[in-house]
Every structure is written in structure tokens, then in C-alpha cells.
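Risk register update: the risk of archive-format incompatibility is retired. Evidence:
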Amino acid sequence: MKIKHLIIVFFLLGTSFSFAQSTKDEETVLQLSKDKWQWMADKNIDKLKDLFDAKAKFVHMSGTWKTDEELEIIKTGSIWYKEAQVHDTAIEISGETAIVWNRITLIAMVRGTEAKTEFTVTEVYQKQKKDWKMLALTFSSVRDTHQIKK
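Archived output:
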């Protein structure tokens, strides 16, 4: 009988540690996602370069490109992400992969013209050693009534 109780105690401890780690990872990734919008607005290439995996892909309304191209676009102001108003967020973590969905209103300067667009943005992150790196960022145009199911 004592072995049975001991097994249950170890199971509960393991489950609570796993939950605590998952919650910590969720908080970390959500903060990175939030910080990313500010870094993009500030054209902070150094911070973004640390966040973006070298092989990351970025899908926009006008095309798809890789990390170096995205950083150059931000640096030159070809697209200036002036402000991302985040209305709704959801996250799911599976192993070392996190997916974040943000419903945003993006105010941006695109080739000299200001645009205000509703998007759901899908971000994919991977834990590499102790750091989370963004592998993909995809903008999907949506109505302002769009909601992310959690």
C-alpha cells in the first residue's frame, strides 16, 4: 500500500512541475511576442536578430521572405511597423515548440503610405537550448470582428 501512495505522490509532483514549467514557458514566449512588436516599431534590429532564427520565414500580404530580408525591410523602413494594437492572444506549447496567435490592428508605413490593417498573426517559436527563437511569422488578413478560439 505504501508503494502505491509513493507512486501517486511522485506522479503528482511530476505533473505539477511539468505544469509550472509549461506556464513559465508560456509567459516567456508571450512576453517575447509582445516585445517583438515594440522592437519592430523601434526598428531594433539587434534585438530582432537575437529573436529570429537564421532560417525563419515571414509571410506578408505582398510576399514571403527569410530573416535577412525581413531585418533589412525593417532597418530601411520599407515596412515600418509603427504600432501593433493587440486585441486577443492565444498560445499552445507542444514539447519545444510554441505557437502564438495574435489578433492585431497594425498601423504601418508601407513604402511611404500609412496602412491600418486587421490581422491574425501566427508566430512559431522553438526552444533552442535555453532560448526561444522565432521560426515563422505569418500575417493573415481578417475582419475586425475575427476572434481567436482558445
